[in-house]
Amino acid sequence: MDNKRAIDLCTCGKPREDLAHNPPDGKFASRELYHDFFPNPQPTPEGIPTIPHAKFPSIPRLSKNHIIISEKIDGTNALIYIDDQSRVYAGSRNRWITPEDDNYGFAKWVASNVGDLSLLGPGMHYGEWYGSGIQRGYGLNHKRFALFNTSRPRETLPPCIEQVPVLKIHAFDSAVIEDVLADLRMNGSRAVPGFMRPEGIVIYHVASKTLFKKTLEGDGGKFTMDEKTPKEVAA
Fold first, then answer.
1. Are 90 and 96 in contact (CB under 8 A)?
2. I want to staple 60 with a disulfide (CB 3.0 to 4.6 A). Which of 4, 157, 207, 211 is the partner?
3. Each residue of 23-42: pLDDT tens digit?
4. Domain 66-215 homologous superfamily, CATH
5. Region(s) of the chain under CATH 3.30.470.30
C-alpha cells in the first residue's frame, strides 16, 4: 500500500484541508505517516504551534471530597429511556430490548408500566432489575427495578420503582468504606431486609464523578504483587 492510500485510510477519508488544524490523534499508523501528512509543521509568528492546545483536566482531590456509598444489588443492569416525545423504551447493559426479545422480562415490565414510568421524564434512567430468577434472587417471588440515581427526590419517582439504598455519605475515608462493608456483611441487605447474602457496595466519588465497587465475595480478584515488583517499577 502506498503512503497516499494509507494516509487516506488513516484519516477516514476526510479532506486534508479539514484536518490541517485538527490532526486526527491516534489514527496514524506510524510517525512517518504523520510527518507525510504534515510535512513541515511551522510555528506561527508568535512562536506557538498551529495545532489547538489541549488543556490537561483538573485532578479532583481524593480525600477532601465526599463519597456516596450505596448497596450493590446483584441483578441485571437495566435501562429505561424516555425520548422528548415521552416515548418509553427498555434496554439492557448492551442492547435495546423488547417484550419479544427480552432480558429477564424487563422490557415486558416496562411495557406494562409505561404510564407510571413516563413520570421519570426524558433521559436515560439506569438501574438494576433484580429478584426472582435473577442472580441471587434475594428470596423474592417477584422482580423489582432499583434506580441508580440516588440524588433524585423519592417523591418525584413513579410508585413502581425504588432507588438503590444509600448506606453512607461521608468524606472519602477508606476506613469508613470498610466499616460500611462490614455492617452490610453482619446485618444483611438494605434493599431486601432479612436477606443475609448481599453482594457488596458501590462507592461514588462525587468530585471525579467516578463509581467504584467492593464486593463481599471475591473482591481481591487475581492481582498479586511480589516484593520485587516495586523495585522493577522504580527502575
1. yes
2. 207
3. 444 455 555 655 565 556 56
4. DNA ligase/mRNA capping enzyme (3.30.470.30)
5. 66-215
Q: How far apart are CA 132 and CA 32, in angstroms?
A: 58
Strand 66-72 relative to strand 200-205, pairing: antiparallel
Handedness of CA 199, 197, 78, 205 (dihedral sign): negative
Distance CA 157, CA 168 (A): 21
pLDDT in tens, 43-57: 666 777 778 888 888
Backbone angles phi, psi at 128, to 5 degrees: -120, 130
Give the integer Cα–Cα distance in Å for 101 and 89.
13
Pairing label, strands 143-147, 66-72: unpaired
117/106 Cα distance (integer angstroms): 13
Name residue, grid cell 440515581: 149
Q: How many CB atoms lie within 10 A of CB 95?
A: 9
Side-by-side strand order, sheet with 66-72: 166-171, 66-72, 200-205, 210-215
Nearest-angstrom CA–CA distance, 127 and 146: 5
- What gap in Å lies between CA 10 and CA 17, rounded to an integer? 15
